[in-house]
Amino acid sequence: MKFMKYHGAGNDFLLADNRDGSISLDAARIAAICDRHTGFGADGIMLLGSCEGYDFSMDYYNSDGSGGMMCGNGGRCIVAFADWLGITPSAPDHYTFLAPDGLHSADILARPSNGWTTALVGTPLASLAPAPPICDGPLPLPVSGGGHVPGG
Fold first, then answer.
1. This prediction's pTM
2. Residue 20: CB partners within 8 Å, gap ≥ 6?
3. Mean pLDDT of 39-55
4. What's the DSSP call for residue 103?
5. Nearest CA-CA partner of 81 in 53, 103, 60, 102
6. Which of 135, 60, 53 is nearest to 96 (CA)?
7. Domains of the chain in sequence order
8. Which carries the bigger pLDDT value, residue 63 or residue 115?
9. Is the separation of the CB atoms in 95 and 60 below 8 Å?
10. Beta carbons within 8 Å of 132's beta carbon, 6+ residues apart
């Protein structure tokens, strides 16, 4: 299992490509991985999956292992991750993805040479204005299991 650590507006997340469906984590394992003292440390884990009719799906888990609906900061991170993975969006620089709370869309606004990606993630409710853009990006090194992770 290989994770990439991303951060957005003060939150940090571990993201993994699960388009092949091979990653299955229970709540105890997620909590152990996210523990800041004995694990890798993160506010949550997101798994990027395949989803027919959308560019990808997002499964979000809080650091205690409970399932989450949608996290705006995490949404920006997973869109930047999808872009980094080379997932072709349904329209130029415009991704659509499915999260537990429904359909979301996001626009890639910039890809500066420093490796950061600026993404604007809209809300699933058409009557609300989208959030302002936040610059998010990966930390320079991938995080992968090399040390001991409780439960692993």
1. 0.77
2. none
3. 94
4. E
5. 60
6. 53
7. 2-144 (3.10.310.10)
8. 63
9. no
10. 120
